[in-house]
Design goal:
Helix 5 packs across helix 6. The model has no long low-confidence stretch (mean pLDDT 94). It is built from seven helices and ten strands. 29% of the residues lie in helices and 32% in strands. A hairpin with a 2-residue loop joins strand 8 and strand 9. It has a six-stranded parallel sheet with strand order 3-10-7-6-4-5, sandwiched between helices. A two-stranded antiparallel sheet has the order 1-2. A two-stranded antiparallel sheet has the order 8-9. The termini are far apart. Bound molecules: nicotinamide-adenine-dinucleotide. The site of nicotinamide-adenine-dinucleotide has 26 residues, from helix 2, helix 6, helix 7 and strand 8.
Length: 195
Protein backbone atom coordinates (compact mmCIF):
# COMPACT_ATOMS: atom_id res chain seq x y z
CA UNK A 1 0.00 0.00 0.00
CA UNK A 2 1.34 3.47 -0.85
CA UNK A 3 0.70 6.82 0.80
CA UNK A 4 0.04 9.60 -1.70
CA UNK A 5 0.06 13.32 -1.08
CA UNK A 6 -1.33 15.55 -3.83
CA UNK A 7 -0.28 19.19 -3.71
CA UNK A 8 -1.21 21.66 -6.41
CA UNK A 9 -2.57 25.16 -6.89
CA UNK A 10 -2.30 24.64 -10.62
CA UNK A 11 -4.65 22.06 -12.20
CA UNK A 12 -2.09 21.42 -14.93
CA UNK A 13 0.72 20.61 -12.57
CA UNK A 14 0.99 18.04 -9.80
CA UNK A 15 4.00 17.14 -7.68
CA UNK A 16 3.06 13.84 -6.14
CA UNK A 17 5.00 12.66 -3.13
CA UNK A 18 4.63 9.04 -2.14
CA UNK A 19 6.08 6.61 0.33
CA UNK A 20 6.14 2.85 -0.18
CA UNK A 21 6.42 1.05 3.16
CA UNK A 22 9.07 -1.67 3.06
CA UNK A 23 9.90 -4.43 5.50
CA UNK A 24 13.49 -5.56 5.80
CA UNK A 25 13.45 -9.07 7.28
CA UNK A 26 16.83 -9.90 8.75
CA UNK A 27 17.30 -13.18 10.60
CA UNK A 28 20.29 -14.62 12.44
CA UNK A 29 20.62 -18.40 12.49
CA UNK A 30 23.19 -21.01 13.42
CA UNK A 31 22.24 -23.75 10.97
CA UNK A 32 19.62 -22.47 8.56
CA UNK A 33 19.40 -25.64 6.43
CA UNK A 34 19.46 -27.88 9.51
CA UNK A 35 18.05 -27.25 12.98
CA UNK A 36 17.04 -23.66 12.18
CA UNK A 37 15.24 -24.35 8.91
CA UNK A 38 11.92 -23.31 10.49
CA UNK A 39 13.22 -19.72 10.41
CA UNK A 40 13.53 -19.97 6.62
CA UNK A 41 10.25 -21.85 6.15
CA UNK A 42 8.38 -19.21 8.16
CA UNK A 43 9.43 -16.56 5.64
CA UNK A 44 7.82 -18.40 2.71
CA UNK A 45 4.17 -17.53 2.13
CA UNK A 46 1.89 -19.86 0.23
CA UNK A 47 0.37 -18.33 -2.89
CA UNK A 48 -3.32 -18.89 -3.69
CA UNK A 49 -3.30 -21.86 -1.28
CA UNK A 50 -0.45 -23.44 -3.26
CA UNK A 51 2.99 -24.23 -1.82
CA UNK A 52 5.54 -21.42 -2.00
CA UNK A 53 7.58 -21.85 -5.19
CA UNK A 54 11.31 -21.56 -4.60
CA UNK A 55 14.32 -21.58 -6.89
CA UNK A 56 17.79 -21.93 -5.36
CA UNK A 57 21.12 -20.55 -6.61
CA UNK A 58 24.36 -21.56 -4.97
CA UNK A 59 27.92 -20.17 -5.09
CA UNK A 60 30.25 -23.00 -6.22
CA UNK A 61 32.91 -21.77 -3.79
CA UNK A 62 30.75 -23.15 -1.01
CA UNK A 63 30.49 -26.57 -2.57
CA UNK A 64 34.27 -26.90 -2.62
CA UNK A 65 34.31 -26.43 1.16
CA UNK A 66 31.02 -28.26 1.89
CA UNK A 67 30.10 -30.80 -0.81
CA UNK A 68 27.01 -31.86 1.13
CA UNK A 69 25.38 -28.43 1.00
CA UNK A 70 23.22 -28.99 -2.13
CA UNK A 71 21.82 -32.19 -0.57
CA UNK A 72 21.20 -30.44 2.75
CA UNK A 73 19.27 -27.64 1.02
CA UNK A 74 17.18 -30.09 -1.01
CA UNK A 75 16.44 -32.19 2.07
CA UNK A 76 15.39 -29.12 4.05
CA UNK A 77 13.02 -27.96 1.30
CA UNK A 78 11.65 -31.47 0.82
CA UNK A 79 10.99 -31.80 4.56
CA UNK A 80 8.30 -29.11 4.12
CA UNK A 81 6.95 -30.34 0.76
CA UNK A 82 3.34 -29.57 1.71
CA UNK A 83 4.23 -25.89 1.93
CA UNK A 84 7.30 -25.50 -0.28
CA UNK A 85 7.86 -26.50 -3.91
CA UNK A 86 11.45 -26.48 -5.15
CA UNK A 87 11.46 -25.30 -8.77
CA UNK A 88 14.24 -26.99 -10.75
CA UNK A 89 17.49 -28.35 -9.35
CA UNK A 90 19.92 -26.49 -7.10
CA UNK A 91 21.52 -24.18 -9.67
CA UNK A 92 25.20 -23.36 -9.23
CA UNK A 93 27.32 -20.41 -10.31
CA UNK A 94 31.03 -19.61 -10.09
CA UNK A 95 31.82 -17.41 -7.10
CA UNK A 96 33.68 -14.11 -7.23
CA UNK A 97 33.72 -11.15 -9.58
CA UNK A 98 33.70 -13.22 -12.79
CA UNK A 99 29.98 -13.89 -12.27
CA UNK A 100 29.23 -10.15 -12.41
CA UNK A 101 31.37 -9.59 -15.50
CA UNK A 102 29.63 -11.78 -18.05
CA UNK A 103 26.06 -11.10 -19.28
CA UNK A 104 25.83 -14.86 -19.89
CA UNK A 105 25.36 -15.51 -16.16
CA UNK A 106 22.56 -12.94 -15.77
CA UNK A 107 20.84 -14.45 -18.79
CA UNK A 108 21.22 -17.92 -17.30
CA UNK A 109 19.36 -16.82 -14.15
CA UNK A 110 16.68 -14.96 -16.12
CA UNK A 111 16.21 -17.97 -18.36
CA UNK A 112 15.74 -20.31 -15.38
CA UNK A 113 13.27 -17.90 -13.73
CA UNK A 114 11.30 -17.87 -16.98
CA UNK A 115 11.44 -21.64 -17.56
CA UNK A 116 10.38 -22.24 -13.96
CA UNK A 117 7.39 -19.91 -14.45
CA UNK A 118 8.29 -17.99 -11.32
CA UNK A 119 6.06 -15.00 -10.66
CA UNK A 120 6.15 -12.04 -8.30
CA UNK A 121 4.96 -14.22 -5.41
CA UNK A 122 7.69 -16.84 -6.00
CA UNK A 123 11.08 -16.87 -4.31
CA UNK A 124 14.66 -16.86 -5.54
CA UNK A 125 17.03 -17.99 -2.81
CA UNK A 126 20.68 -17.14 -3.35
CA UNK A 127 23.42 -18.58 -1.17
CA UNK A 128 26.90 -17.18 -1.63
CA UNK A 129 29.40 -14.36 -1.52
CA UNK A 130 28.60 -10.75 -2.36
CA UNK A 131 29.32 -11.17 -6.07
CA UNK A 132 26.82 -14.01 -6.57
CA UNK A 133 24.27 -12.20 -4.37
CA UNK A 134 24.66 -9.03 -6.43
CA UNK A 135 24.23 -10.78 -9.78
CA UNK A 136 21.35 -13.09 -8.87
CA UNK A 137 19.73 -10.19 -6.97
CA UNK A 138 19.89 -8.07 -10.09
CA UNK A 139 18.24 -10.78 -12.21
CA UNK A 140 15.52 -11.33 -9.58
CA UNK A 141 14.87 -7.58 -9.39
CA UNK A 142 14.31 -7.15 -13.12
CA UNK A 143 12.39 -10.39 -13.77
CA UNK A 144 8.70 -9.46 -13.67
CA UNK A 145 9.93 -6.18 -12.09
CA UNK A 146 10.76 -8.10 -8.94
CA UNK A 147 10.61 -11.72 -7.84
CA UNK A 148 11.00 -12.15 -4.07
CA UNK A 149 14.66 -12.55 -3.18
CA UNK A 150 16.05 -14.28 -0.10
CA UNK A 151 19.77 -13.73 0.41
CA UNK A 152 22.01 -16.08 2.34
CA UNK A 153 25.36 -14.24 2.51
CA UNK A 154 28.28 -16.58 3.13
CA UNK A 155 31.30 -14.30 3.55
CA UNK A 156 31.91 -11.99 6.48
CA UNK A 157 31.89 -8.99 4.12
CA UNK A 158 28.56 -10.02 2.64
CA UNK A 159 26.99 -10.71 6.06
CA UNK A 160 28.00 -7.24 7.23
CA UNK A 161 27.57 -5.26 4.02
CA UNK A 162 26.37 -6.40 0.59
CA UNK A 163 24.04 -9.12 1.83
CA UNK A 164 22.11 -6.95 4.25
CA UNK A 165 21.74 -3.88 2.03
CA UNK A 166 19.26 -3.17 -0.75
CA UNK A 167 21.59 -2.76 -3.73
CA UNK A 168 22.39 -5.23 -6.45
CA UNK A 169 24.47 -4.89 -9.59
CA UNK A 170 26.48 -6.39 -12.40
CA UNK A 171 29.54 -4.99 -14.13
CA UNK A 172 28.84 -3.55 -17.58
CA UNK A 173 30.85 -1.69 -20.21
CA UNK A 174 33.89 -2.85 -18.25
CA UNK A 175 32.74 -0.72 -15.31
CA UNK A 176 32.02 -2.02 -11.82
CA UNK A 177 28.38 -2.11 -10.70
CA UNK A 178 27.34 -0.04 -13.73
CA UNK A 179 24.01 -1.80 -14.11
CA UNK A 180 21.85 -2.39 -11.06
CA UNK A 181 18.83 -1.55 -8.97
CA UNK A 182 17.84 -0.72 -5.43
CA UNK A 183 15.51 -3.53 -4.43
CA UNK A 184 14.72 -4.53 -0.87
CA UNK A 185 15.14 -8.29 -0.54
CA UNK A 186 12.23 -10.26 0.88
CA UNK A 187 14.61 -11.46 3.59
CA UNK A 188 18.25 -11.90 4.54
CA UNK A 189 19.49 -14.88 6.55
CA UNK A 190 22.86 -14.38 8.24
CA UNK A 191 23.77 -17.94 9.13
CA UNK A 192 26.81 -18.89 11.20
CA UNK A 193 27.36 -22.29 9.61
CA UNK A 194 27.41 -20.94 6.04
CA UNK A 195 30.43 -18.73 6.78
N1 LIG B 1 25.33 -4.75 -3.02
C1 LIG B 1 26.09 -4.13 -2.13
O1 LIG B 1 25.60 -3.30 -1.34
C2 LIG B 1 27.56 -4.45 -2.01
C3 LIG B 1 28.31 -3.92 -0.95
C4 LIG B 1 29.65 -4.31 -0.84
C5 LIG B 1 30.22 -5.19 -1.77
N2 LIG B 1 29.43 -5.69 -2.79
C6 LIG B 1 30.00 -6.60 -3.77
O2 LIG B 1 30.38 -7.82 -3.14
C7 LIG B 1 31.37 -8.46 -3.93
C8 LIG B 1 32.44 -9.02 -3.02
O3 LIG B 1 31.82 -9.99 -2.20
P1 LIG B 1 32.60 -10.93 -1.16
O4 LIG B 1 33.65 -10.16 -0.48
O5 LIG B 1 31.52 -11.56 -0.34
O6 LIG B 1 33.38 -11.97 -2.04
P2 LIG B 1 33.00 -12.80 -3.37
O7 LIG B 1 31.56 -12.93 -3.57
O8 LIG B 1 33.81 -12.16 -4.48
O9 LIG B 1 33.57 -14.23 -3.02
C9 LIG B 1 34.98 -14.46 -2.90
C10 LIG B 1 35.25 -15.96 -3.01
O10 LIG B 1 34.78 -16.63 -1.82
C11 LIG B 1 34.04 -17.81 -2.21
N3 LIG B 1 33.14 -18.08 -1.07
C12 LIG B 1 31.97 -17.47 -0.76
N4 LIG B 1 31.50 -17.94 0.41
C13 LIG B 1 32.38 -18.89 0.83
C14 LIG B 1 32.45 -19.75 1.98
N5 LIG B 1 31.55 -19.69 2.96
N6 LIG B 1 33.49 -20.63 2.07
C15 LIG B 1 34.44 -20.66 1.11
N7 LIG B 1 34.46 -19.86 0.01
C16 LIG B 1 33.42 -18.99 -0.12
C17 LIG B 1 33.42 -17.44 -3.53
O11 LIG B 1 33.11 -18.61 -4.28
C18 LIG B 1 34.55 -16.64 -4.17
O12 LIG B 1 35.45 -17.51 -4.79
C19 LIG B 1 31.87 -7.40 -4.91
O13 LIG B 1 31.36 -7.71 -6.21
C20 LIG B 1 31.26 -6.10 -4.42
O14 LIG B 1 30.98 -5.21 -5.46
C21 LIG B 1 28.12 -5.33 -2.92
Amino acid sequence: MSEFSWKSDDPDRYDIEFVIPMVHRLRFTRDCFGDDFAVVANLLERSNSQPARVQVWLDEGLISSNGELPNLIEAALESQHDDIEQVGPIYTLPGGEEVKNSPGFVNEVLDAINRGNLDRRSYVMVVGGGAVLDMVGYAAAVAHRGVRLIRFPTTTLAQGDSGVGVKNAVNWFGKKNWKGTFATPWAVINDQRLL
